[in-house]
Protein backbone atom coordinates (compact mmCIF):
# COMPACT_ATOMS: atom_id res chain seq x y z
CA UNK A 1 0.00 0.00 0.00
CA UNK A 2 2.78 2.43 0.91
CA UNK A 3 4.66 1.75 -2.38
CA UNK A 4 1.47 2.31 -4.42
CA UNK A 5 0.88 5.61 -2.64
CA UNK A 6 4.47 6.72 -3.27
CA UNK A 7 4.19 5.81 -6.96
CA UNK A 8 0.88 7.66 -7.30
CA UNK A 9 2.39 10.65 -5.52
CA UNK A 10 5.34 10.73 -7.94
CA UNK A 11 3.01 10.56 -10.94
CA UNK A 12 0.87 13.43 -9.63
CA UNK A 13 3.96 15.52 -8.84
CA UNK A 14 5.47 14.88 -12.28
CA UNK A 15 2.20 15.83 -13.96
CA UNK A 16 1.92 19.01 -11.90
CA UNK A 17 5.48 20.07 -12.76
CA UNK A 18 4.97 19.28 -16.45
CA UNK A 19 1.66 21.13 -16.69
CA UNK A 20 2.54 24.05 -14.43
CA UNK A 21 3.02 27.44 -16.07
CA UNK A 22 6.48 29.02 -15.96
CA UNK A 23 7.54 30.42 -12.59
CA UNK A 24 7.22 34.03 -13.71
CA UNK A 25 4.37 35.94 -15.28
CA UNK A 26 6.09 35.72 -18.65
CA UNK A 27 3.97 33.97 -21.26
CA UNK A 28 5.89 31.87 -23.75
CA UNK A 29 4.68 31.21 -27.25
CA UNK A 30 6.08 28.45 -29.44
CA UNK A 31 9.72 29.22 -30.07
CA UNK A 32 11.35 29.93 -33.42
CA UNK A 33 14.04 27.26 -33.84
CA UNK A 34 15.96 29.28 -36.43
CA UNK A 35 16.16 32.26 -34.07
CA UNK A 36 17.21 29.91 -31.28
CA UNK A 37 20.02 28.50 -33.41
CA UNK A 38 21.14 32.04 -34.22
CA UNK A 39 21.17 32.99 -30.52
CA UNK A 40 22.79 29.75 -29.33
CA UNK A 41 26.44 30.71 -29.80
CA UNK A 42 26.78 32.11 -26.30
CA UNK A 43 25.13 29.00 -24.82
CA UNK A 44 27.28 26.45 -26.64
CA UNK A 45 30.46 28.06 -25.38
CA UNK A 46 29.83 26.15 -22.13
CA UNK A 47 26.92 23.80 -22.92
CA UNK A 48 28.57 21.97 -25.80
CA UNK A 49 26.63 20.89 -28.87
CA UNK A 50 28.21 17.46 -28.47
CA UNK A 51 26.04 16.96 -25.39
CA UNK A 52 29.16 16.22 -23.37
CA UNK A 53 28.70 17.35 -19.78
CA UNK A 54 31.42 19.09 -17.84
CA UNK A 55 31.63 19.47 -14.07
CA UNK A 56 28.87 21.88 -13.06
CA UNK A 57 27.70 22.39 -16.65
CA UNK A 58 24.85 20.11 -17.72
CA UNK A 59 24.01 19.24 -21.29
CA UNK A 60 21.02 21.14 -22.67
CA UNK A 61 20.76 19.08 -25.85
CA UNK A 62 17.29 17.56 -26.13
CA UNK A 63 16.00 19.12 -22.90
CA UNK A 64 12.20 19.53 -23.20
CA UNK A 65 11.26 23.06 -24.24
CA UNK A 66 9.09 23.82 -21.21
CA UNK A 67 11.80 22.72 -18.79
CA UNK A 68 14.59 24.70 -20.42
CA UNK A 69 12.41 27.80 -20.82
CA UNK A 70 11.34 27.62 -17.18
CA UNK A 71 14.96 27.27 -16.04
CA UNK A 72 16.07 30.26 -18.13
CA UNK A 73 13.22 32.37 -16.77
CA UNK A 74 14.15 31.40 -13.22
CA UNK A 75 17.77 32.45 -13.87
CA UNK A 76 16.56 35.69 -15.46
CA UNK A 77 14.31 36.39 -12.45
CA UNK A 78 17.22 35.45 -10.13
CA UNK A 79 15.22 32.60 -8.59
CA UNK A 80 18.08 30.22 -9.44
CA UNK A 81 21.50 31.00 -8.10
CA UNK A 82 24.27 31.15 -10.70
CA UNK A 83 25.71 34.59 -11.51
CA UNK A 84 26.87 33.58 -15.01
CA UNK A 85 23.50 32.10 -15.97
CA UNK A 86 21.65 35.02 -14.37
CA UNK A 87 23.64 37.45 -16.52
CA UNK A 88 23.21 35.47 -19.73
CA UNK A 89 19.51 34.69 -19.25
CA UNK A 90 18.91 38.30 -18.21
CA UNK A 91 19.85 39.43 -21.72
CA UNK A 92 17.12 37.42 -23.43
CA UNK A 93 13.52 38.43 -24.05
CA UNK A 94 10.65 35.97 -23.58
CA UNK A 95 10.60 35.38 -27.34
CA UNK A 96 14.33 34.64 -27.36
CA UNK A 97 14.04 32.26 -24.40
CA UNK A 98 11.26 30.38 -26.18
CA UNK A 99 13.39 30.24 -29.34
CA UNK A 100 16.43 28.88 -27.46
CA UNK A 101 14.26 26.28 -25.73
CA UNK A 102 12.74 25.23 -29.08
CA UNK A 103 16.16 24.94 -30.71
CA UNK A 104 17.90 22.97 -27.95
CA UNK A 105 14.80 20.84 -27.39
CA UNK A 106 14.83 19.83 -31.05
CA UNK A 107 18.42 18.59 -30.98
CA UNK A 108 19.31 14.95 -30.45
CA UNK A 109 22.43 13.64 -28.75
CA UNK A 110 24.98 12.30 -31.20
CA UNK A 111 26.12 8.84 -30.22
Description:
- There is one protein chain.
- By secondary structure, the protein is mainly α.
- The termini are far apart.
- It is 56% helix and 0% strand.
- The chain is built from six helices and no strands.
Give a quick summary of the entry.
The chain has helices at 2-19, 33-39, 41-44, 65-76, 83-90, 94-106. With 111 residues, it is mainly alpha-helical. The N and C termini lie far apart (41 Å).
The CATH homologous superfamily name equals Cytochrome c-like domain
Give helix % range.
55-70%
The count of β-strands is 0
Radius of gyration: 15 Å
Main sheet characteristics: none
- The overall pLDDT, averaged over residues, is 81
CATH third-tier fold name: Cytochrome Bc1 Complex, Chain D, domain 2
Q: Give the N-terminus to C-terminus distance in angstroms.
A: 41 Å
Order of helices and strands: HHHHHH
Which keywords apply here?
111 residues, mainly alpha, Cytochrome Bc1 Complex, Chain D, domain 2, disordered N terminus
What's the arrangement of secondary structure elements?
Blueprint: H1 2-19, H2 33-39, H3 41-44, H4 65-76, H5 83-90, H6 94-106
Amino acid sequence: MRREWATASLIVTAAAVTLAPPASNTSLAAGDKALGEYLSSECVTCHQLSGREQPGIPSIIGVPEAGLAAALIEYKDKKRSNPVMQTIAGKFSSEEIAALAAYFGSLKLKR
